[in-house]
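Need a sequence for this fold. Nothing fancy.
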């Protein structure tokens, strides 16, 4: 355990940020699953609606530093391609 006051504070701050990052990552995963479920159900309208929400969430996560910008771009790109491939 840390003895120095600043080290104790860092532990608390890191804990807070870790919880925030986990929540954001979980939300993004849920949104991606919704898009993939709509694609699997062959429902283009639902997939496009879910894609719009997922894109927004992924971009927010990237802007907050949870995802690297290239990772976010890759996720958005792959989802968009999958939705566009639908008949």
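Here you go.
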């Amino acid at each position: 355990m840390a003895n120095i006051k600043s080290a104790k504070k860092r532990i608390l701050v890191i804990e807070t940020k870790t919880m925030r990052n986990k929540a954001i990552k979980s939300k993004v995963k849920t949104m991606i699953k919704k898009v993939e479920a709509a694609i699997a159900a062959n429902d283009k309208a639902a997939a496009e609606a879910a894609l719009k929400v997922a894109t927004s969430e992924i971009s927010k996560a990237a802007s907050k530093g949870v995802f690297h910008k290239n990772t976010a771009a890759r996720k958005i790109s792959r989802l968009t391609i999958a939705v566009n491939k639908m008949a």
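For context: Residues 5-40 form the longest helix (36 residues).
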